[in-house]
């Protein structure tokens, strides 16, 4: 069914060239193999191997303070930033808003590095980056976009029975976004962008003026900060920073957030007495039990983790092709003493580094602590003290 759905997707921007993406046929593309290598290297810097994973997973994945993925900020590598700016400059469509961004970077680069210029002004120029990303980099035919739409679809299918009618508005929105992401580029038109930046004055020669003008511009209401446009923009940027990544990356960074959003609604609507009984059955640590909000979060995250892990496990088994991709990735990762499962658990756990050790281990990691795959992956002795069937 999914294939039929995706077969209708038009290839809007066939941009052949080095970056063109080769969908999986038997073997992984060079780009995906390279990205696995990169990810493995980043992971080596990210985790603290001196901290034993089974003892404190938080210390293991968070104590070096270098998460692999950050939902909060989009910070490309220098080479990616240069690629983005070059693509934007070489894009045959000439329009004012784009010229403003380019002039700004020229003025800024006389004083600072490109990365600093980007870091300081990313929020202002996000829609223009969205424009070039969806036009040139997240191609309609790319496996990212297909995988991404499959992720939304599979979430919708699997949760049909999990979430009742009350959360249908969100499910309907997701259905719409899946369609919109067949051609995300149409949300970033040159004409709209010109209007968005119409009042902004940028001078090539005067970085100081530009900074001030940007501050002013920021105070205006941006049409890209609201509703559909915002989600299209945020998810497009997410797709860009997720290029060539394995599925063990997408599930713990995207799908899990969909579950959290849904359970955050449904769990709060549940019958209070039943909820309390379930929580008592879970035998949560004292630290969590004393606060009703902590209990609530514990259940939301436990459920979100379980469902996400189940989805990923099912994805692996869904077809021979998936299994082959998974095995090949693991073979490459093995050279770095890694595996898809380790990637999954690390990325999941790093969602919560900023909350600190106590909250992470007592509230957010409950799912990990009762997961047999987790224990096997890190060769911890498997012993569960959480009752699995309570919630
Ligand atoms: C696929 O990769 C495997 C090793 O990972 C190699 O033995 C095989 O020849 C490759 N097949 C193709 C069609 O490239
Ligand atoms: C921005 O939007 C808010 C809420 O819609 C509105 O109250 C405010 O007046 C707007 N500001 C400007 C400068 O348009
Ligand atoms: C969860 O729900 C609460 C209460 O409705 C809300 O304040 C909070 O922002 C939500 N959190 C997430 C992550 O959706």
From TrEMBL:
<dbReference type="GO" id="GO:0004222">
    <property type="term" value="F:metalloendopeptidase activity"/>
</dbReference>
<dbReference type="InterPro" id="IPR000718">
    <property type="entry name" value="Peptidase_M13"/>
</dbReference>
<protein>
    <submittedName>
        <fullName>GH19089</fullName>
    </submittedName>
</protein>
<dbReference type="GO" id="GO:0006508">
    <property type="term" value="P:proteolysis"/>
</dbReference>
<keyword id="KW-0732">Signal</keyword>
<feature type="signal peptide">
    <location>
        <begin position="1"/>
        <end position="20"/>
    </location>
</feature>
């Amino acid at each position: 069914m999914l294939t039929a759905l995706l077969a209708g997707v038009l290839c809007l921007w066939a941009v052949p060239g080095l970056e063109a993406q080769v969908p999986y046929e038997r073997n992984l593309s060079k780009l995906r193999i390279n990205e696995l290598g990169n990810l493995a290297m980043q992971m080596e810097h990210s985790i603290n191997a001196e901290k034993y994973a089974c003892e404190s997973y938080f210390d293991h994945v968070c104590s070096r303070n270098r998460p692999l993925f950050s939902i909060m900020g989009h910070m490309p590598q220098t080479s990616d930033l240069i690629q983005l700016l070059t693509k934007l400059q070489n894009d045959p469509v000439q329009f004012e808003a784009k010229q403003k961004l380019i002039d700004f970077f020229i003025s800024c680069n006389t004083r600072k590095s490109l990365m600093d210029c980007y870091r300081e002004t990313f929020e202002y120029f996000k829609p223009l980056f969205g424009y070039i990303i969806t036009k040139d980099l997240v191609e309609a035919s790319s496996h990212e976009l297909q995988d991404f739409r499959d992720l939304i679809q599979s979430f919708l299918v699997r949760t049909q029975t999990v979430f009742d009618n009350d959360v249908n508005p969100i499910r309907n929105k997701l259905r719409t976004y899946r369609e919109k992401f067949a051609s995300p580029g149409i949300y970033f038109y040159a004409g709209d962008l010109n209007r968005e930046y119409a009042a902004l004055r940028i001078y090539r020669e005067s970085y100081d003026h530009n900074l001030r003008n940007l501050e002013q511009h920021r105070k205006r209401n941006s049409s890209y900060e609201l509703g559909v446009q915002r989600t299209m923009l945020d998810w497009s940027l997410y797709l860009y920073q997720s290029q060539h990544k394995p599925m063990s990356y997408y599930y713990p960074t995207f799908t899990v957030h969909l579950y959290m959003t849904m359970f955050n609604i449904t769990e709060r609507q549940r019958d209070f007495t039943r909820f309390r009984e379930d929580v008592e059955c879970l035998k949560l640590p004292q630290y969590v039990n004393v606060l009703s909000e902590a209990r609530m979060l514990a259940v939301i995250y436990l459920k979100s983790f379980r469902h996400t892990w189940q989805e990923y496990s099912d994805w692996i088994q869904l077809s021979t092709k998936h299994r082959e991709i998974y095995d090949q990735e693991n073979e490459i990762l093995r050279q770095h003493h890694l595996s898809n499962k380790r990637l999954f658990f690390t990325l999941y756990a790093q969602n919560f580094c900023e909350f600190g050790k106590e909250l992470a281990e007592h509230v957010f990691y409950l799912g990990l602590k009762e997961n047999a795959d987790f224990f096997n992956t890190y060769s911890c002795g498997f012993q569960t003290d959480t009752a699995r069937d309570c919630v």
